[in-house]
Amino acid sequence: MIEWTQDNTDDFAVMSRQAARDFDAWAIRTIGIPGAVLMENAGRGTVEVIVGALGLTAAKAIVFCGGGNNGGDG
After folding, report:
1. Rounded to whole angstroms, what are the CA distances from 53 to 30, 47, 48, 56?
2. What is the 3-state secondary structure (H, E, C) of the chain?
3. Region 52-73: what's the mean pLDDT?
4. pLDDT at position 34 over 60
């Protein structure tokens, strides 16, 4: 597992909850990306990974989101 730091922003990393929060705060503060854009990109990126892993060209999906800030990404 690669831990995110401010020096490895181009690497794919599995993040803990706190690391994801730190990354979001860094992206908002340093790069100026709005939080809503981060959520949209997270949702789109997740679909791209899943569709690619399954070898699909198009897909419909149902997203179930739990409590605690998961709804925005979904």
Report:
1. 32, 10, 8, 8
2. CCCCCCCCCCCCCCCCHHHHHHHHHHHHHHHCCCHHHHHHHHHHHHHHHHHHHHCCCCCCCCCCCCCCCCCCCC
3. 72
4. yes
Structure tokens at 53: 């892993």
List pLDDT tens digits, range 4-17.
566 655 656 677 88
What are 54's two structure tokens?
A: 């399954």
Other CB atoms within 10 A of residue 67 CB:
6
Contacts 24+ apart (CB under 8 A), 69-73: 72/36, 72/39, 73/39, 73/42, 73/43, 73/46
User: What's residue 37's pLDDT?
Assistant: 92
